[in-house]
Structure formats: C-alpha cells, structure tokens
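Entry 14. Ran structure prediction on the chain below.
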Amino acid sequence: MNDELQKFITDFNAEVVERAMGDGECQGNFKETAFTGLVLEYLEEYGVIENPHLAYFGGKVGKSNALVNGYAINEEEDTLDLFSTVFVNAGEASRISSDDLRKSAEQPVRFFDGACRELHKTMEPASEAFAMANRIYDLKKQIKNVRVFILTDGVSGKKEINPMALPNGIPISFHVWDIERLFRILQSGRPQDEIMIDFIKMHGAPLPCIRVPTDLPEYSACMAILPGELLFKMYDQFGARLLERNVRAFLQARGKVNKGIRATLRSEPTRFLAYNNGISVTVESLVTAILPDGGLGIASAKGLQIVNGGQTTASIYRAKRYDKVDISQVFVPAKITALHPDLLDEFAPKIAEYANTQNVIQMADFSSNDPFHIAIERLSNTLWCPGEQERWFYERARGQYQIAMSAATTPAQKRQFKERTPVSRKFTKIDMAKFLNSWEQRPHIVSMGGQKNFVMFMQELREARSKEWVPDDRYYREMIAKAIICRQAYRIVSQEKFPAYRANIVAYLVSMLSFSSGGRFDLGMVWERQEISQETEDLLRSWSHIIIEGIIDSSGGKNITEWCKKEVCWKGIKDITELTLPDILPPELQSRTVKTTGWGSKPEEKRVNILPDELEALARCKRVEAEEWMRIVAWGRETGILDTGQRKLVSQMGNRAAEGWKGDLSGKQALEARKILNLAEEQGGPTGTKPL
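Output, structure tokens:
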C-alpha cells in the first residue's frame, strides 16, 4: 500500500478519534458518527454536497432493514442526498466487499421509500431521525432526484453502482466515497500543490486563443472559448483547487443566477455561450503553440485559477456528473490573465471582486487568501496560550495541520508538535464562523449550516469593517475565548445526551449566554484559564434543557431543524423568563476589567463590580425591538408621562436597538430604561414586548 495513503489513514483516524472523544466516549457508534461528520464537512467544502445533517436511523422499514447516517437537501428542495456509512475502523486500507457495498446502497433507498409513506409517525419526535423522515415526507412531491452516498474508511474495488428509478419515476444515483477517493480529493487540495493544465493531453490539441495586443509590465492577457467538456475535465481532475481564489462557498447551484445556468444547461445547451458572461482565469505562465491554420493556441498553463466563474464551472460539472446532461454543445468565453507570482495575491482578489457582480453575496468570501484569514493564521502561529506551552492552530486551508505535522521528521519532534499543538486546538474557517456568530447572537444563522453561516459571517464582517482593518492580538484572544465557550458548551450538551439537535442547542445556548451577560462576560478570564468556570458550566447545563424545550414548544409542530433557522425562533428563546442568571454570578460576570486614564498618567486596569440586577436590566432592554422603543417615545410625548430626559434615553435605546446594540450600554442606563418600560406597562402604554 502507498505510504502516503497509509499515513493519511492514520492521521484521518486520529482526527476521528479526537472528535469521538468530544462526545465523552471513543467506541461504537460515536466513532462512526464522528467519521461521517468529518467526511460530510470535506464534501461540503469541496462542493460535492450542500448543507448536510447528521441523522442516524437503523431499523426495519416493513420487513427489510434500512440504515441512513445523514441527509442533505439542496436550495431548490428538489434533490435529496442520503448518506450511508460503512465504518471498518481498521486503521488501515481494508477492502470492502461488494456485498457490503450493495447492502449499504440498498438500505437508504428503503428508508426513502418508507419516509415517503409516513415512517416518521412511528418515530420518537425528539430525534434527528424523525426530523429527517418528516422533512422528506413534507417534500416528497418536490423531490426530483435522490443521490445515495456510500461513505467508508475502507477501500472499495467497485467505484460505480448502476443508477435505478423508483416506481414513481424518481431517479436514484449512487456515489462511492472510499478512503482512497477521500485521500485523492484532500491531497489535491493541499495549498502547496501547483495546478498544471496540459491542454494538448486534456483537450487533444492546443486551446485556440486571441492575444490581447498589450505590452504591459504587470500582466498579459488573451481571450479563448472553453468547451464545456474541457471545463468539466479540469474540474473533475482538480476540483475546488481551481477555485482557491474564488468564492468556494458557492459551489452548488443556488440563487436566481445559478438556477438560470442550470435551466439553460438542461434545456438549451446550445444557447449557453450566448447567455453566459464567461469566466475570468489567472495563470502564472502560459506556453503557446502555433495552430495548423496559423493561429495561436495555449499548449499548457501553470498555476491556473478560476477567479470568477465558480458558479458556471461547478454548474457544468454537476450537470454532467449528476444530472447526466449532454454538454457537448456547451461553450464558455474566458478571459485569461497571466500574472507574475508576486502579483497574484494583489491582482486575483480584485479581478474576482470587480467581476463578481452577478450575486451580491459572492463578495463575502474570497477563500483562504482573504487578508482576514491570513491575519488569523499569522496570529495563531505567534500567540501562545498563557504559560507558553501550547497554542491554537488555524487551518486556513484543508490539510495544513497534517502538513505542519509532517514537517516534524523524528518521533520526538512529532510528539512535541502534538503536545504544543493538539488536534483539540485546531479550528477551521467553518469552525471560526460558528464560534463568532454564536457569540454574536445569531444562532438561527449558525443553524443554517457550516457553509451558509460562513458566507453570512464574512459578508457581515465586510459590511461592518473597513477594507483596511485586520484582526489584532485582542481580537484573536477574544475569538479563542469564544471558541473555548462553544466547544465546552458542546461537551456539556453531549454529556446531557440529548437525542437530537445538539448543534442547534449549542448555538442557542452560547447566544443566550452572550445575550444575558449584556457584553459584560469576561472573555479575558476565559483566555487566561483556557476554560470556563464550573459555575458557568453548571449554568449552561441547566439552561440547555430549558432551551430545547423552548425551541420545541415554540415550533408549533414545525420541523425543528428548519425552525431553528428562523429569527423568530431566537426571539422566542430570548423571552423565556426561566433563562435568568443566578443571584451569585459566575466568576466571569462578578467583575469586569476596564481601562481608565488620568491626566498625565498611563492607562491602567481596575476591577468594577457588576450587579446581577444590572445584567437583568440589560437583557430586558435588549429584548425590545427598535420600533417598540420609538412607540414608547411617541406615547410618552403624547401623554406627557415621560419628560424630555426620559424620552431622550428611550430614543437612544431605539437607536442602539436599530444598530444591533453595538457599543457599551452602562448598567445605570439599563436600569433607568427598565424603569421606563415598567412605567409604560403600568400606565397602559407600549409594553416593550409587542406592538399595540
């Protein structure tokens, strides 16, 4: 067996074990679930699937066995993906028999058939399996395609399984992802690898082009028409690596633009060239050749990147690979810019930014080369945890952790690397967005899934910060504190053994902690200790049960997974009166560090006590919408009950609410504003909870 493959299996298995241990155990179904979750993350990042959910079902459907480990539904809600895991847990490349593969392919089909026949009515409502079956039943008339993915840590000699169709005509395709295929896709994604396109080998001849008549020192350019088949082959071989400088979160057919691309490919492929704006490509260098007719052609390209056109590329790939569309008459215009390697990081993002006007949200993420991500990586490499013995590792691009560990050549060096940079302190872009958006009180967005949450996080970051802003040491330390809170919250929720919706509970739990603390939670203390206090842990543990009950009760029988994605769900959780802070506050809330300055003296720090009543007042104020504060201002003016100073304070509260409560709100202000809310309620005015 290939030594590189065995090393990959060993490292991959170590990460699976680490994840399984996060659930408090490391055996049986825990490792299988951890394996499935990790693979789904990779497949989502590389554009193979969209918004996956872990959900285990194993049992009888009728008289036959059925088994599913998870599911995903696309944006248009017409394609269902079902995941079936064959977990060997051998630690080496073990062969999977054809019989095991066949059973693994058949059982999700049985589950789908049962789900369409009200299988959910036989299940426990508070389970992920129920949510999966119920969601399929609700969409059974909309689903037009079913894809079954067999995920295995073994090696399958059979890579393809013939498609089939159900009696109702819905086509089912099968896709085998064994450890060898995972190894290939992850190897191809390593940032140090360089993409070399040999057009003569891949296309059969040099690609005809027209050189742009310029003589500029920074770049040269040419125009070409790419056959759809060639673009398919390029993506099939190199995958998401082609889009490393593009918007990697948009690898599925989404939105109005992508729906148009998809529809044209299916029904009017010959018109694709006329309708499509084309793609923008950057390369480090080109090798040209003279064509038989005397024209110019591109023989090969080094360092090729599609910086605009990720939607077009992925849509063409998906159309042929999964929808079996004939793309022989599909052609795509391409602008190819050859840049010096030193200018790539400056030019490529700008080309992508100025070209990406089809969909506003595309501006949100320019992958791992965005300055924000580069700065976070730098900070993770230079800032050590207190005690200088360990540090966190930011995996800006998939595979960087393993590459860094591979740089350690001796057993002692490897041991030292693992001790200083344990897997438990590794985090990705997707992880970071979950940590930060949970603390920013956006649990409904976090519940939308890793990629969507990441894109919305980046979009908010771009809107809230100037282009010149980069994270500093303080930002990084506070971010790690939020990461610690989220990961320890997940550990707590796992220990409580909730049967379903753990990720949703964690997002809402962390958001509620942030909300209730009114911006007063001492993140610096968490950074210094690298853990939360026992008192905060106890609080989260008790709140977790109240939160899931609140989510289920407020759903009104709706699908819980979908309900958690709604902002109204979050508003309902904030209004639960049982979610209050204890009389004796956790250490992180007992006092607060602030900066003070005196004339002629340097800044110093001092501790300021925080009163529980102030925190309650802060939470009460933040529950009130901006419109309601404005109603209170109008009511106070019309009735004369509120004086000028009170109306001014209420107006300030409305402005803060409209801005998302940015900045600091003092305890004194919150207490006074709460008095006004109580007064309005007593005098028959707006209550601060709902419009009149």
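The radius of gyration is 28 Å. Will compare against last week's run tomorrow.
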